Amino acid sequence: MRAHVRLERLCYHAAMRDEAGLERETAKPQGKKRVLLLLSAHTYRGGAFLEAAESLGLEVVRGVDVPEELAEQWRVPLGLEFDDLERSTEKVVEYARQRPLDAIISVDDSASLLAARASAALGLPHNSPQAALAARDKYEMRKLLAAGSVPVPQFMRYSLLQDPKVLASRVSYPCVVKPLRLSGSRGVIRADGPEEFATAFERLKRLLLSEGNVPDTTNVLVEEFIPGVEVALEGLLTNGDLQVLALFDKPDPLDGPYFEETLYVTPSRLPDVARAAIAACTSQAAEALGLCEGPVHAELRLNSKGPWIVEIAGRSIGGLCSTVLRFGAGVRLEELILRHAVDLEIEGLDRERKAAGVMMIPIPKAGLLTGVEGVEEAKAVPGIEGVEITARLRQPLVPLPEGASYLGFIFARADDPASAEKALRQAHSRLRFKIQAQIPILHTSRVEVSPVKQ
Questions:
Q1: Is 278 left (phi over 0), alpha (psi -120 to 50) or beta?
Q2: pTM for the structure as a whole
Q3: What is the pLDDT of residue 351?
Q4: 298: which of 77, 233, 366, 428 fits an S-S bond (Cβ 3.0–4.6 Å)?
C-alpha cells in the first residue's frame, strides 16, 4: 500500500507541474541538459533528485518502474519495467532518438542494470553493464573482489533446492546467510551452529519464494561472519578515481542474528590511518568490480586484520540518509551527483565542518501502526534538525529480516560526532509508536489478517 501511495503522489505532482504531459519534454530547450531519472515506486529519494535537478535548471524525464498502462493513466513520461531489461533498454533508446539525453541516473539499486545498459547503448558515461551486475549480485561481487585481492570472507553459493540440514555440515561457524540481490539487510541472518543455519536457510527461502523467486533458479550466499566495527563510505568516481565524500560510523553493534542499521554519524571517529585504509580498500573494490563512474556507496567492517568490504554499490546512500550531507556552500549530495553526471562545474567536494547524523527508526515488532506520539518532543532536542515519520497509519509493519522499510528518520547536526549521536538517541527515546498486534483469520481459499482489539 505504501509503495502505491508514493507512486500515486509522485505521478500526481508530475502531472500537476505539467498538464501538457509529454509535450513539455519533447522539445529540449536550447542549451538545457536533459537527464533521465529512473525511479522505483517505493523509492524515498525521487523528490530530492527532482528538486536538485530543478535548482540546476535541468530538463528531467521521469522513468518509473510501472506497467505501460499505469504509466499512461498517471501520465508518467516514460513507463518502464526494470526487470525487463531488453524491452526497457529499447524504450529508453527509442525515447532518446526523439529527445536526446545527457545522462541516465538510477536513483536506487532497482534500475542500476537498466541505467548501465541504456547508457552503453546511447554512448553516455556510466559503469559497464558487467560492473553494474556485479554490484547488484552478492555472489558475483564476492568472486570479483576475491579475484582482485580485496579482503573478503570465505563464501559459497547454494541452491534453494538443496537440503539445509545437509549443507549445515559443510559450513564454518559463525556464518551469515544472504539473498543475492535484496538490499537493506533483508534476509540477512547470522547462524552460530548447524541448527541455526538450517532455520535461517528455511526462513530466507520462504522470503525469497514470497518475492516470486523460483526455487530451481534461485541461489543464496553463505559466507563467514566478519567481526568488527562497521562503517559506510559515500564516494564519487571519476574515470576510476575515488573521491571520498563522507565516512559514517555505525555506533550500534551489528553482530546479528539480524543486521538492522540504525545510526549513521559523520565524520568518523576512527583514527586517520584506519580511515585511509578504508578509502584504499573501497577504491580497490571499485576497481575489482569495474565501477568507474558516478556515485558509490560501500559498507565495510574493520578489525585487527584491516578493512573488509561487506558490499559496494554503484549508487548513492539509500533512504533519506543523504539529507544530512552538505558540501561546499551547502550543496546537497543529489546536486553533486547530477552536476557530475552532466559535466557541470563542481566548486568543492569537501563536506561541511559540522558533524551530522541520521537514525533510521527501526520497527520494534510486527503489527499495525495505529499512532505516533512525541514527534514535537523529539524535534525539540538540541541538535535535531528534523523528524520524518515515513510509515503510514494503519500500515502493517514488518521488522527485519523480512521487512523492507523503517518507521522513519531522525536528522541531527552538532559540533562533534558524539553530540550528534547523543541527540539522535535522545530524540528517539521521546517517540512512542502504537503498534497493534494482528492475528490471521483462516478462510477457505486465503488467509486474511485482522487487528486484535486491545
A1: alpha
A2: 0.87
A3: 92
A4: 233
Contact 131, 289 (CB under 8 A): yes
pLDDT at residue 29 in the model: 52
| Cβ atoms of residues 228 and 305 within 8 Å | no
φ, ψ dihedrals at 79, nearest 5° = -85, 125
pLDDT of residue 427: 98
Asked whether 242 and 282 are in contact (CB, 8 A), the reply is yes
CB–CB of 312/236 below 8 Å? no
Question: Which residue is associated with the grid cell 538517541?
Answer: 425
DSSP letters of 367-432?
A: EEEEEEE-HHHHHTSTTEEEEEE-SPTT-EE--TTT----SEEEEEEESSHHHHHHHHHHHHHT-E
CA atoms of 296 and 318, how far apart (whole Å): 11
Question: Which residues are paired to 384 by β-bridges?
Answer: 412
Q: Are 320 and 357 in contact (CB under 8 A)?
A: no
CA distance 2 to 396: 10
* Average pLDDT of the chain, as a whole number: 89
pLDDT in tens, 24-53: 344 455 568 999 999 987 777 888 999 999
Contact 398, 363 (CB under 8 A): yes
For residue 305, give every residue at least 6 positions away whose Cβ sits within 8 Å of its Cβ, in sequence order, or none: 151
Q: How far apart are CA 436 and CA 407, in angstroms?
A: 14
Kindly report the backbone phi and psi dihedral angles of residue 155, in degrees, each rounded to the nearest multiple of 5, phi listed first: -145, 155
Pairing, β 408-414 against β 355-361: antiparallel
pLDDT digits (tens, 9 = 90+) for 136-167: 999 999 999 999 999 999 999 999 999 999 99
* Model pLDDT, residue 319: 83
**Alpha-carbon separation of residue 3 from 136, 381, 392, 398, 436 (angstroms):** 21, 31, 11, 14, 21
The candidate with the shortest Cα–Cα distance to 393, out of 451, 440, 321, 344, is: 451
* Type of residue found at 303: N
- Could you write out the DSSP letters of every residue in 85-148? HHHHHHHHHHHHHHS--SEEEESSGGGHHHHHHHHHHHT-S---HHHHHHHH-HHHHHHHHHHT
Give the pLDDT score at 74: 76
- Whole-number Å distance between alpha carbons of 227 and 257: 13
Spell out the residues 6+ positions from residue 96 whose beta carbon is closer than 8 angstroms to its own: 36, 122
**DSSP tag of 248:** E
Low-confidence residues in the chain, pLDDT < 70: 1-31, 439-454
Q: Rounded to a whole number, what is the largest CA-CA distance in the chain?
A: 66
- Taking each helix axis from N to C terminus, what angle separates 272-289 and 129-136, rounded to the nearest 10 degrees? 120
